[in-house]
Design goal:
The protein has one domain: Rossmann fold, CATH 3.40.50.720. It contains seven helices and seven strands; from the N terminus they run βαβαβαβαβαβααβ. The chain has a seven-stranded parallel beta sheet, sandwiched between helices. It is of the alpha/beta class.
Length: 230
């Protein structure tokens, strides 16, 4: 096992969008970065220097592989639960949403983050680390068609809040990144032009500032930390 003071992060769902943008920024800042993605074939080239573990966070064997990869580095300072499942596209009303799809959304957006938190708590406690769970305004606002996804993010928010109470030695955040020009956001609005949404890279400075300042644990909006990290 490697012993080092170099900070280490695990970011799930780093194949594209916010996860990849944050991983790139942390690599540039000197962090050791472990990433995963279901479509990970391009990640080694996109994120040179990162430890890439292909797979699906809902798969226990993949989570074991992530544990082995992080454990081999000897520490974990930041866990970013970014991997998410939107559900069917176009977004169906609750009257029509397939229950199998709801189950998949909940497994990806709630159960997998909890499983990873449980697995990595010893390392996070040792470093006095940070858990960053990527949420959404759909967790607190009622948007037609967003019932499956929004309810999963509301559950993730509550999980985050309880973890913060139970683990006062950690910084624990549920972060609403705001609308972004991503593949997932496009799937939520099929056929619509979303080019007016900001790129995921524009959200990263706010996240870096959050990680630098480490305010009191809770639910935050990335927009409230906009600007360069100190």
């Amino acid at each position: 096992m490697t012993s080092t003071t170099q900070p280490t992060v695990l970011i799930t769902g780093a194949g594209r969008g916010l996860g990849r943008a944050l991983a790139r920024a942390l690599l540039a800042s000197g962090w050791r970065v472990v990433v995963d993605a279901r479509r990970a074939g391009h990640l080694s080239a996109a994120l040179p220097g990162a430890v890439v573990v292909p797979g699906d966070v809902t798969d226990p064997a993949h989570r074991d592989a992530l544990t082995a990869a992080v454990g081999g580095l000897g520490r974990l300072d930041l866990l970013v639960n970014n991997a998410s499942d939107l559900g069917p596209s176009p977004l169906p009303r609750l009257a029509d949403v397939p229950l199998a799809a709801v189950r998949r959304v909940q497994e990806t957006n709630v159960l997998a983050p909890l499983a990873l938190i449980q697995m990595f708590l010893p390392l996070l406690r040792a470093s006095g680390g940070t858990v960053l769970n990527v949420s959404s305004d759909a967790a607190v606002e009622a948007y037609e068609g967003w019932g499956a996804y929004g309810s999963s993010k509301a559950a993730l928010d509550q999980l985050t809040a309880v973890l913060a109470v139970e683990e006062p030695g950690l910084s624990v955040y549920s972060v609403d990144p705001g609308d972004m020009r991503t593949e997932m956001h496009q799937a939520a609005f099929p056929g619509e032009d979303i080019s007016d949404r900001p790129a995921p890279e524009t959200v990263v400075p706010g996240l870096l500032r959050l990680l630098t300042e480490r305010p009191r644990s809770g639910r935050v909006r990335a927009a409230d930390f906009a600007g360069s990290a100190a």
